Amino acid sequence: MADIINLRQARKQKQRSDKDAQAAENRARFGQKKADKQQRTQEHSRSERDLDGKLRVIPVQKDDAEP
């Protein structure tokens, strides 16, 4: 025989767990020190510059004779 559950209580428990998960995500995202955020931003921009510096660019040749 199946267990009998109260759907109202199950729904409220699911909402609580979803809210707790969202709170944990927000703490991870917004609960950082300013220095940590700046360091992470600098590391990201440095890595982007390094990647752009290693990019191969094929020069496009233009025709000198324009009508």
Please supply descriptive tags for the structure shown above.
mainly alpha
Report low-confidence residues grouped into runs of 5 or more.
none
Rounded to an integer, what's the Rg over CA atoms? 27 Å
What's the tally of helices? 2
β-sheet strand percentage: under 5%
Mean pLDDT: 87
Q: What's the main sheet like?
A: none
The helix-and-strand class reads: mainly alpha
> Topology as H/E string?
HH
Q: What percent of residues adopt helix (DSSP H or I)?
A: 55-70%
Distance between the termini: 87 Å
Query: What global shape is seen?
Result: elongated
Using DSSP, what is the number of strands? Answer: 0
Task: Explain what you see.
By secondary structure, the chain is an all-alpha fold. The chain has 2 helices and no strands. The model has no long low-confidence stretch (mean pLDDT 87).
Could you give a quick summary of the protein structure above?
This protein is an all-alpha fold. Helices cover 66% and strands 0% of the residues.
Layout of helices and strands:
Blueprint lengths: L6 H24 L3 H20 L14
